[in-house]
Amino acid sequence: MASAAFSVSSPAASAVAARSKAGPRAVPDRHSVPAYLRLVSVLGRGVSQGRSRTGCRVGITRKNFGRVMMALAVDVSRFEGVPMAPPDPILGVSEAFRADKNDLKLNLGVGAYRTEELQPYVLNVVKKAEKLMLEKGDNKEYLPIEGLAAFNKATAELLLGADNPVIKQGLVATIQSLSGTGSLRLAAAFIQRYFPEAKVIISSPTWGNHKNIFNDARVPWSEYRYYDPKTVGLDFEGMIADIEAAPEGSFVLLHGCAHNPTGIDPTPEQWEKIADVIQEKKHMPFFDVAYQGFASGSLDEDAFSVRLFVKRGMEVFVAQSYSKNLGLYSERIGAINVVCSATDVADRVKSQLKRLARPMYSNPPIHGARIVANVVGDPTMFGEWKQEMEEMAGRIKNVRQKLYDSLSAKDQSGKDWSFILRQIGMFSYTGLNKAQSDNMTDKWHVYMTKDGRISLAGLSLAKCDYLADAIIDSFHNLN
Ligand code: PLA
């Protein structure tokens, strides 16, 4: 009988099997077998028909690889058990923003740079590189699994400095990957495979997607203290104590610069101390560098933390992204670099990263890699990029200052808003709680993440007064 031949695994199909066993008297409901086996006869070619013990028509499709498939009708879905996922806390904000028809609306959710006119910005140097690429008529062949060689060279040099001995000695395993997120995910898969006992410790708070990445890779994580709401600054003692207390050999996830969401970075002296503890505890530093050049306006200054660890001879993981500093958000261009203690180690690590990448996405996209390689590899374009990046970073700093001025001038309560000036990078961590952030959106049409973070890269000088009114109202009138 046909039903006996089924290999079933879904909950709906198991229910079918159970009911079949129960015999013809099983009472059909909306989700029962007969409802969806009845329609099988309309499925046509490749479907053979028979009768189940419930007396219903059933159909099976035999694929040539020998598996027996159950042909299902449409009134009960196999996806019945799939619940609706919540909107993403960051990218979901942009969806809500797009749906709002109010002219006053402001999207300060995702960290994406806008011009003073609040328009997306394609860097001139990117347009120039793309024009050259088009003129050259480059082909679209597959890249090797590790990505474009010229990109991998350029990206490691940009991160570590072209003269860094670790590059000269071949100690860096670099794999081009799918921007910052994809690079983090690849590294997480590597940790899961080769350090199955290790856990990752991440700052509290951190970029929301970090937790998803390690969860999906099945890498256990816990948090170390980072932000102190009382001082609106770094909880340095707490951070050091928690890194010290983590099991030896933990991976310590650090934001290379422009910590997201707080905008608070350790000082150079504090970085030294952090490196001391990590070294003592034989932890592995794992840097997420998503904003090189965007914190200070200088690529070298923003790589200070990573270079400090590398200079100490430590083995280090670094994920890089060109979404923000070259405005290549949708090109998905970035890299994972693993600085190793010996050349053969770097070769082995690289071979395993490739092995992980191959079944995940095979090989990375070429367009963004060529842009980066062309810009970084050409002294004139490199200079132009640095200038444009300084301008972008400068515009964000101006907006930061203006927002502080507006808040200080308008708020009669005497609250000290100077923490905004001490924060760096794209974001300001306002201290607004969820209810207050909801008020920002519901009443003022200011879209932001519910942790109180606002992206200053999405703000214009002209909108600072309006935003200050919204913040003051939300802060003082809601708790
Ligand atoms: N790491 C950090 C700390 C980030 O803030 C982001 C992006 C990434 C990695 C990944 O960026 P990429 O994959 O595009 O290279 N964070 C954004 C966007 C700007 C996002 O959430 O995806 C943010 O709004 O926080």
Automatic annotation (TrEMBL):
<keyword id="KW-0808">Transferase</keyword>
<dbReference type="InterPro" id="IPR015421">
    <property type="entry name" value="PyrdxlP-dep_Trfase_major"/>
</dbReference>
<dbReference type="GO" id="GO:0030170">
    <property type="term" value="F:pyridoxal phosphate binding"/>
</dbReference>
<keyword id="KW-0663">Pyridoxal phosphate</keyword>
<dbReference type="GO" id="GO:0006520">
    <property type="term" value="P:amino acid metabolic process"/>
</dbReference>
<dbReference type="Pfam" id="PF00155">
    <property type="entry name" value="Aminotran_1_2"/>
</dbReference>
<comment type="subunit">
    <text>Homodimer.</text>
</comment>
<keyword id="KW-0032">Aminotransferase</keyword>
<protein>
    <recommendedName>
        <fullName>aspartate transaminase</fullName>
        <ecNumber>2.6.1.1</ecNumber>
    </recommendedName>
</protein>
<comment type="similarity">
    <text>Belongs to the class-I pyridoxal-phosphate-dependent aminotransferase family.</text>
</comment>
<feature type="domain" description="Aminotransferase class I/classII large">
    <location>
        <begin position="105"/>
        <end position="471"/>
    </location>
</feature>
<dbReference type="InterPro" id="IPR004839">
    <property type="entry name" value="Aminotransferase_I/II_large"/>
</dbReference>
<dbReference type="InterPro" id="IPR015422">
    <property type="entry name" value="PyrdxlP-dep_Trfase_small"/>
</dbReference>
<dbReference type="InterPro" id="IPR000796">
    <property type="entry name" value="Asp_trans"/>
</dbReference>
<dbReference type="InterPro" id="IPR015424">
    <property type="entry name" value="PyrdxlP-dep_Trfase"/>
</dbReference>
<dbReference type="GO" id="GO:0004069">
    <property type="term" value="F:L-aspartate:2-oxoglutarate aminotransferase activity"/>
</dbReference>
